[in-house]
Amino acid sequence: MNTTIVHFDLDTFFVSCERLLDSRLNNKPVIVGGTGDRGVVSAASYETRAYGVHSGMPMKMARQLCPNAIYIRGNAGTYTKFSKQVTEILQSEVPVLEKASVDEFYADLTGMDRFFGCYKFASELRNTITRESGLPISFGLSVNKTVSKVATNEAKPNNQLKVDTGYEKAFLAPLSIKKIPMVGEKTYRTFCNMGIKNVHAVQQMPVEMMTSVFGKNGRMIWQRANGIDHTPIVAYHERKSISNERTYGQDTIDITTLKTTITAMAENLAFQLRRGGKLTSCVTVKIRYSDFQTYSKQLKIPYTSADHHLIPVVMQLFDTLFSRRLLIRLVGVRYSSLTTGTYQINLFDDEKKTVNLYTAMDAIRTRYGDRSIMRAATMGEGARTIGNFTNPFNGEPPIVLAHRTQ
Known about the structure:
Layout: E1 5-10, H1 13-21, E2 30-33, E3 41-44, H2 46-49, H3 59-65, E4 70-72, H4 76-93, E5 96-101, E6 104-108, H5 118-133, E7 137-142, H6 145-155, E8 160-162, H7 168-172, H8 185-193, H9 199-203, H10 207-214, H11 216-225, E9 241-252, H12 255-275, E10 278-289, E11 294-304, H13 307-321, E12 328-336, E13 339-340, H14 352-368, E14 373-375, E15 399-401
Parallel strand pairs: 2-4, 7-8, 14-15
Antiparallel strand pairs: 1-6, 1-7, 2-3, 5-6, 9-12, 10-11, 10-12, 10-13
Helix pairs in contact: 4-5, 10-11, 12-13
């Protein structure tokens, strides 16, 4: 029996979410991403594509190419909510679902042709998603993940495409080699130096030549160019880590700013853990200096999701890392080795009022936003852009928690 894989991709996802929230953005050039000079374009509407703007581009360059666009910083919490809505629709309808990213999904529909028709089913599912979420979505249908993904990109925007069994190679042949997953800018330049720009030329090459030029990845690229991909669908599973990073608009060595940033990150991520019913047992801190040298350190700890346990560990790791005394470009905090659980009182350190305090704080944050209540130590320039800045108080400042921790 031939497999049937469908790939769904929400079109310009972040932009589409913003347009749902503000209809005045419809049919206008919109760019979502970091709004500083060092920011990166996370999503760009199709109206900006004619100017050469694309995701992953430096925001400074995007402003030069399309100065009349509407620039939005975006809100990760909003996008997560819409992504979860689409995920729940798909999970309720398909037998096996893989969530490849916040806006991409693979589903295995093998065997459904005998009952309903895979293409018809996928079409109706696409209409259901658009109707219930309000978000435009495209899909590609074929025998494997690679061809389905390429078909989705060819179908966009807001459309669908089926590649019949046996026509995978013919479908891929006229396309640019850049359309094949795994072929980035560096690999594409190598192909160009070889005089190769389309998939058909790769299909005619001996696989041995591909491996001699690209190493072990050469065989995989050759297989995908020929429509061969046996990668299985990995059923949707919970994330194993949670992280946050901040790239400064201007490199800094201000220790107060740096510590404010990572404290705010540690506090916000701890709240995300508790909100998701998770505990962490591994803390990592990352620093990138102005010369782009990047260093990180991690430490295994007992399972916890409490700020007053995690923040000291983060600060300890930062103090260990920050040894070069150079200007710092980026800092980051990551909690990994996650497991399901809730914060429990430490018999030696904590009191019940500490747990009640976290419960009250989290209730306020859940209702009014991640940064509606915070420690005094996380206020200031270093905490700017950390967390969700949805202001529930109509212009009033957030609650500041000046709580002495042990």
